[in-house]
Structures are given as structure tokens and as C-alpha cells.
Amino acid sequence: MLSAVATSASLRLIHGLVVGPSLVPVVPAIARRAGTHEEEAGAYLAATLRFVHALVRVSPYILGVAIAGSLASGGFVESDDVDLNLLVEDDHRHLAYVALNTLGVVHALRQRGKPTDAHTRRPLAPRVMTANLILARSQYLPLVRKDAAMAYELLCSKPIFGRRHWRELVAANPELVEHLPQLREWAGHADAPELRSGLPGWLFPSWADGPARALGGAAWHWMQWTRRKDPEALARVAFVRDSMRPYALFEDR
């Protein structure tokens, strides 16, 4: 890596980070985040594992969960939220969204003293647990997007449930491994005993995804309305949704 940086006209090594010209001004902030990650992430990682356990127990249609965002990539600070990527059965994406956010509100109500920023501040309680990417089985077997950005999104996340299904995703999309060969070992090879849902699948028929879409969409659009006077937050939402297309939810309104 160092030899590649030394021969590159654009890459620089600053504070132990390899960056391009556009990131040079924010290197100190990135370095500070990386420096405090171990101290601030521990308690949130443990809380996330408990949260995922509770989510899987009531959501038999969830096939896999991975921690994404700063908690997975190594730059977590206490004002951040926790991003989760989900794999789910077909016709259950919106049910998963509603389940995650319902449990997330309950969890957040116990975290009212948590530091927040423009992205995690909410009217009643801070945003703590949030859905980053929700993929139905038919959407990832295979993926429509197999570009380097999608490969990087996966590599920077950490599967914590349903490793078999994450491996299945990678196997069905070999182009991702061409971008980042590290994905061959990303989800591991040996599975620990998996969590099991305490509820039968028939309680969540596929037709229920329609009402869940209406409920989740109303809640999502209301939340965007509360941000209407916060250009920074709106810009962040637009950036994230653009990076998630064509898999972003609630794109039809």
C-alpha cells in the first residue's frame, strides 16, 4: 500500500490515513473519530447485539443482519446512530422496516440522554438503531448493483446474524469479489448457533407488507417534514438514499 501511495500523483498518507485531495481538509476529524472509536463503541456494540437478538426473536422473516456505518467501519462517536443492513424474505421489506423502527423507538426512549447531532436528533428521543439497507431475497440473488461501491458497502459492514445468507449473497454475485477479493472471507466459514425467532412465520403473511409500507412510508415522510428547516440533515438523507438506489424504500412518493 505504501508503495502505491508513493507512486500516486493524488493519494496522500496523513495521520496514518490514505486519502485523496478532496478528503485532506477533513483528515483531522476522521483521525479523531478513529482515535475514540474503541472507547465509545464498546457499550453500543453490546447494546446492538441485544437489540438484534430482540428484533430477530419477533421477526421470523429476517434472514441476516449486519452492522454497518461508523460502528462497523471504526469511526464511531457517541452522537452517531447504529446502521443495520438486513436480508429478508421476499415481500417483507416494509414489515422489517416497521419492526426495526418500532423496537428502535422503544430502545431510544431509554436513551434520551444520548448525545445527538443534526442526523440523530429527533422530537421524542434520539435515533439510535436505524435501517441502512434492506434487501429481499430476490433482490440479492442476484443483485442489480454489482459495482465497487456496493462491494465496499458490504465489506465495511459486519455480519452478526445469518452468516450463511450473507455468504450466499456473495456467492451469487461474483463480480463483487472481483472488486474486493476480501469479500471471499468476509462472512466467515463457520456458523455459531443462530438465533431463532419465537414467532411462527404465518403471523406475517406477504400481504401484510402493503399496510406496513403505508405505515412506514407515512412515518418516514413525517420525519422528513420535521427536517424541512435543516438543510444539512436533508442533504445527508439525499446522499444516503442516492447511494442506496435502487434499493431505497419509499421511492414512489
Q: What does it look like?
A:
The mean pLDDT is 88. The longest helix has 31 residues, at 27-57. α4 crosses α9 (209-226). The chain has ten helices and six strands, in the order αββαβαβαβααβαααα. The protein has one domain. The N and C termini lie far apart (45 Å). It has 253 residues and is an alpha+beta fold. It has a four-stranded mixed beta sheet, with helices on both faces. It is globular and about 60 Å long.
Briefly, what is this?
The protein has one domain (42-244). It contains ten helices and six strands; from the N terminus they run H-E-E-H-E-H-E-H-E-H-H-E-H-H-H-H. The chain has helices at residues 2-6, 27-57, 69-73, 93-109, 137-140, 148-155, 163-172, 174-179, 209-226, 231-244, and strands at residues 12-14, 17-19, 62-68, 82-88, 129-136, 158-161.
Secondary-structure map:
Elements: H1 2-6, E1 12-14, E2 17-19, H2 27-57, E3 62-68, H3 69-73, E4 82-88, H4 93-109, E5 129-136, H5 137-140, H6 148-155, E6 158-161, H7 163-172, H8 174-179, H9 209-226, H10 231-244
Parallel strand pairs: 4-5
Antiparallel strand pairs: 1-2, 3-4, 3-6
Helix pairs in contact: 4-9
